[in-house]
Amino acid sequence: MAKLSPMQTDFPRTHIPRKRFGQHFLHDAGIIRRIVQAIGPREDQAIVEIGPGEGALTLPVLREARHLTVIELDRDLAPRLAALAEGIGRIEVINADVLTVDLTGLAAGRPLRVIGNLPYNISTPILFHCLEHADAIADMHFMLQKEVVERMAAPPGSKTYGRLSVMLQLVCQVEPLLDVPPGAFRPPPKVDSQVVRVTPLPAPERPAPDLHTAIDRVVRAAFGQRRKTVANALGTLLPAARIEAAGIDPRSRAEQLPPGAYVALAGQL
């Protein structure tokens, strides 16, 4: 994991977005202002930005927070960010894949606030990576594909309710904030986007750590065959009697069960 300091400034003014990194750079000043207002950064907070790109969100947040850590995979963008921050505040640039970064270590005992315009091609793995560090995170503000946010916030019974909905809602409160049209980016993506606030629940309200693996197994199995009844989908994991013991009708389908039901099923494992 490489850390950079302000030094390299001999780079072109305009960075060419790279498809392999899923780069779409936010440029709409009004949208940026609303996102910063939603975040409400302060000087006494530990803030980490994932995928800062050209710094559209980085710089206005840095003006308020005075110190910011950013995680950027693109080696061409990392030195740009360090140089742009000069005279605004102190910035630490970590040139790495965020999935390899220990967010709990970055928090260093302080509640971490995580922000970012996430690459849409790996947004779900990044969300799950953040969930692994929920104990160290105060809140998250992310720009995501609108369809992903709808799945994150979907209630039981809806067509978009699935594994992502359950796993996130067991650990966090999900609050969609504002829509962002394709024209707010360079280049424009082919989808609408949305900003979402994700706030980890207090530890006592989250499933016990020793249930995490069992919950993941149950949820994967249930939604892996969502057209089947729970009894059929979980046939290799739990017999119908154990499903009933969890207080669940074996004839139910995966999308009908609230997140808490999966904790009860995991307990039967």
Automatic annotation (TrEMBL):
Q: Which SUPFAM superfamilies match?
A: S-adenosyl-L-methionine-dependent methyltransferases
- Reading the lineage from the top rank, the first entry is Bacteria
- Domain annotation Ribosomal RNA adenine methylase transferase N-terminal: ranges: 31-202
**Which top EC class is named for this enzyme in its record?**
transferase
Q: Name one GO molecular function term.
A: RNA binding
Q: Where are the transmembrane segments?
A: none
- Provide the alphabetized UniProt keywords: Cytoplasm, Methyltransferase, RNA-binding, rRNA processing, S-adenosyl-L-methionine, Transferase
Give the EC number(s) listed in the UniProt record.
2.1.1.182
Q: Which InterPro entries match?
A: KsgA/Erm, rRNA_Ade_diMease-like_C, rRNA_Ade_Mease_Trfase_CS, rRNA_Ade_methylase_Trfase_N, rRNA_adenine_dimethylase, SAM-dependent_MTases_sf
Major subcellular location class: cytoplasm
Provide GO CC annotations from the record: cytosol
State the compartments where it is located.
Cytoplasm
Q: Where does S-adenosyl-L-methionine bind?
A: H24, L26, G51, E72, D97, N117
Reaction(s) catalysed (UniProt annotation): adenosine(1518)/adenosine(1519) in 16S rRNA + 4 S-adenosyl-L-methionine = N(6)-dimethyladenosine(1518)/N(6)-dimethyladenosine(1519) in 16S rRNA + 4 S-adenosyl-L-homocysteine + 4 H(+)
- What family does the entry list? Belongs to the class I-like SAM-binding methyltransferase superfamily. rRNA adenine N(6)-methyltransferase family. RsmA subfamily.
Function according to Swiss-Prot or TrEMBL: Specifically dimethylates two adjacent adenosines (A1518 and A1519) in the loop of a conserved hairpin near the 3'-end of 16S rRNA in the 30S particle. May play a critical role in biogenesis of 30S subunits.
- What name appears for this protein in its UniProt entry? Ribosomal RNA small subunit methyltransferase A
Which organism was this protein described from? Dokdonella koreensis DS-123
Q: Which gene encodes it?
A: rsmA
